[in-house]
Amino acid sequence: MAGAETVSALLLLLVAEVEVRGPTEVAFGKAFELTVIRRWSAGLVPGRWEDGLLEPLAVNLVEVRRAERDGLVEETLRFDAYAFDRDAVVVGGVTFTARAADGTGHSAKTDPLHIIVESSLDAAAPGPVEVPGGLMDVPFNWGRWKMEILGGLIVVAGFAWTAMRFRRGRASGAASESVDVRALDRLAAAAALHPEPFYIAVSDAVRDFICERYGVQAPEMTTQEFLASAPVSRAMGERRRDGLAAFLFLCDHVKFGRLPTTAADRSEASAAAERFVRDAALEGQPEGAS
Questions:
Q1: What is the mean pLDDT of residues 250-270?
Q2: What's this model's pTM, rounded to 2 decimal places?
Q3: Structural domains of the chain, count
Q4: Pairing mode, if any, of strands 16-21 and 32-41?
């Protein structure tokens, strides 16, 4: 009886703890530090860590440290994390379970982490937006991103229509028309391609169109450098650039090979890109463009 009571007492002393530390405000697409700390009694076996527990953030594990003191093991996992949702994200409670030799589980769960996501493109002083380096698993809310992309392009269309009403008398000129036609022809040709070359062709067509129309010199620019360039910053407001950023980053994710798509997804992306070109063409030559 005394032996059973001793075992029960030991089981009560076994612990499993977890906490997530990170900022409450971050910039869209920029890396920020996120730390997960797991603690468990030395007599327990910890469950395997899964990066998916931190969705909808995209994370890249940078460092793992583990130390043991007074029968308690502490593991620290440090990540570079990225937020690709607009306005705010919520990381649900992270659960951690460590088991005893007899299979008994000891669990802990964090409170949800609420993070405000601010634009990384400041109209007054634009800076580069970061894209996670290398091939990594990017948790992706496809439905939400489709709505964000289409919503952003709809906003662009609204601005374009308003501008057109005030600039109807200004002719675009043969040079501008050829830029628009070339972009639309390239988008039409891309429709028959497979997913990865399709997104490469579509994003290149949109980038080249903006380069020619707004005078951006960007032969070797990354997406973040392109969006932060001075001519694009002058030509587009913050919300228009965020809509364009969502579309171009989506194409980048597919090119990295970490985002599956369907024929319907590609059709929507092609239509969104075509609308962007047509709506920008209606604005005429923007003021300040070189």
A1: 73
A2: 0.46
A3: 2
A4: antiparallel
